[in-house]
Design brief:
Layout (H helix, E strand, L loop, with lengths): L2 H17 L79 H17 L15 E3 H16 L5 H16 L12 E3 L5 E2 L15 H17 L4 H9 L7 E2 L2 E8 L2 E6 L5 H10 L6 H5 L3 E6 L2 E6 L3 H4 L8 H9 L7 H18 L7 E3 L6 E8 L2 E6 L11 E3 H10 L4 H10 L3 E2 L3 E2 L2 E3 L6 E2 L4 H15 L8
Antiparallel strand pairs: 1-2, 2-3, 4-5, 5-6, 7-8, 9-10, 10-11, 12-15, 13-14, 15-16
Helix pairs in contact: 2-14, 3-5, 3-14, 5-6, 5-7, 10-12, 12-13, 12-14
């Protein structure tokens, strides 16, 4: 199928998705209780994560399955690029010592070499698709940081990429809200809608969860490379960050009837990951951290916490998937309160493998076929092992194994035999020119999920950095 036809199908898909989400404001202080009136936006990082190119069959590998600090508030913003900084002399590479890790790092970095835009310093969200969200740019920052730390990106090239990006951010067009729009062109840094059409007035709104991940990435850059700290702080003071939290909850916005409607954003897992990320900038979402409406369920006999706010009573799905918990562990480290949930999340996936013979590593991921992006969850909307789009439609035929989940679980829990099986399963699941593929479908007839995106390849690099740092979180 021609690329133009694929792109047309994708844009129709994203437009259909975004125009059918209709959360409304809820007058109750306990907003999630306003059932049946929808009151919540999706509990996800992106409204859509497109992929527009599928590698030719000969490039798709067929691996064998294994045997069973606070932000200063006073400085005024500037849009004038400063004198380029020189890389910190304190930053020395932490080289990968194992052959498998060296191979994995080189393959993941291929994505960035191919998809970095020299005009803006932004990285494409999906291979050869010049569009992005801020969640994806948070991943891009962390991937570039990991590559610099691992010696995959020389200091002079790192300096060039950082200066180009900071120049773009210093003059980034903003909507009247004072917060970055949900989507931008990676070639021009102009505002785009979620269907990749121009958005000169920024009517698409903002995502607090996207912004939280990007702010985490900026915090890593300002803390690990202090030569960029002042510029990053001044860039961020341009943004109206006070709008990211309302009444202690994460606060996003969506377009409705010609205006932006502010809505609570996030579900258990994503909500706490984002709230902890915002704390790095002294932004406190106290209710998101302390008062999420939680209940327990059992899946395959394993006890798990889920969000009471589901599609039926709130208008948004309560995905229980790996991504926010794995990023939380790699980047900030798990606190004692969340560790039982994490351990049981791994346990239930391992038990499914023992029960079914299907190697299981769930996640949110891009796909190489319609609907192009799905959430594979242990539990969602009252059912176990659901695969859903953002509208709550199930796609059980497209259950998949996630590359980024496999790399992350092994980095975080290397002593668990099951995580070693996960990592081995995806070690060679890459395209030599484009980077790691998103994963494999559980239906063997569908084979490889040949989508290639920034999140998968960035998280592969993050997991390798976490490992060589002696399993210390990347933020610190």
């Amino acid at each position: 199928m021609a690329t133009s036809v694929i792109k047309s199908m994708i844009l129709q898909s994203v437009l259909y998705t975004t125009t059918n989400q209709q959360p409304l404001l809820c007058p109750s202080t306990a907003m999630w209780q306003c059932s049946p009136t929808p009151s919540m936006i999706i509990a996800a990082p992106n409204n859509f994560n497109p992929d527009v190119q599928t590698p030719p069959p000969q490039t798709v590998p067929q691996p064998n399955a294994p045997t069973v600090t606070p932000l200063p508030l006073k400085p005024k913003p500037t849009v004038t690029p400063e004198k380029p900084a020189t890389p910190s002399l304190k930053t020395s590479p932490l080289p990968l010592t194992q052959a498998a890790d060296q191979i994995a790092g080189g393959r993941a970095w291929k994505y960035f070499e191919r998809n970095w835009n020299p005009q803006t310093g932004l990285v494409n969200s999906a291979d050869n698709f010049p569009w992005t969200t801020w969640w994806d740019q948070g991943s891009a920052l962390l991937g570039i940081h990991a590559a610099r730390q691992l010696g995959l990106l020389p200091p002079d090239m790192f300096q060039k990429r950082m200066n180009t990006l900071l120049q773009t951010l210093e003059k980034l067009p903003l909507p009247a809200t004072g917060l970055p729009n949900k989507a931008y062109s990676t070639r021009t840094a102009q505002m785009r809608q979620l269907n990749d059409t121009p958005d000169p007035k920024g009517i698409t709104g903002w995502s607090v969860i996207d912004m939280a991940r990007f702010l985490l990435g900026l915090h890593v850059m300002r803390s690990h490379y202090p030569e960029y700290s002042d510029r990053i702080n001044r860039i961020v003071t341009r943004w109206n960050l006070s709008k990211l939290v309302k009444d202690g909850w994460l606060n996003g916005s969506i377009p409705r009837a010609g205006r932006l409607l502010e809505v609570q954003e996030g579900r258990l897992g994503y909500e706490q990951y984002a709230a902890h990320s915002l704390k790095l900038w002294n932004i406190q979402a106290t209710n998101a951290l302390s008062n999420p409406p939680v209940k327990t369920v059992k899946v395959d006999g394993v006890t798990l916490q889920i969000d009471q706010r589901n599609l039926k009573n709130s208008g948004a799905t309560n995905y229980l998937t790996n991504d926010p918990y794995l990023l939380w562990g790699l980047e900030m480290g798990w606190n004692d309160a969340v560790k039982p949930q994490v351990q049981n999340l791994l346990k239930v996936q391992q038990q499914r493998f023992k029960r079914t013979g299907i190697l299981t590593a769930i996640n949110e991921d891009s796909l190489d076929r319609p609907p192009y992006f799905l959430y594979y969850s242990v539990y969602a909307n009252g059912k176990a092992w659901e695969v859903l789009n953002t509208r709550g439609k199930a796609f059980p035929q497209l259950r998949f194994f996630s590359t980024k989940a496999a790399f992350s679980w092994f980095a975080l829990m290397p002593d668990e035999p099951y995580t070693k099986m996960l990592r081995d399963f995806v070690q060679n699941l890459s395209d030599k020119n484009r980077g790691y593929l998103s994963g494999r479908y559980e239906n063997s007839q569908l084979g490889v999920n040949a989508s290639v995106d920034v999140n998968t390849n960035a998280i592969v690099l993050e997991s390798l950095l976490y490992k060589v740092r002696g399993r210390h979180p990347i933020v610190y």
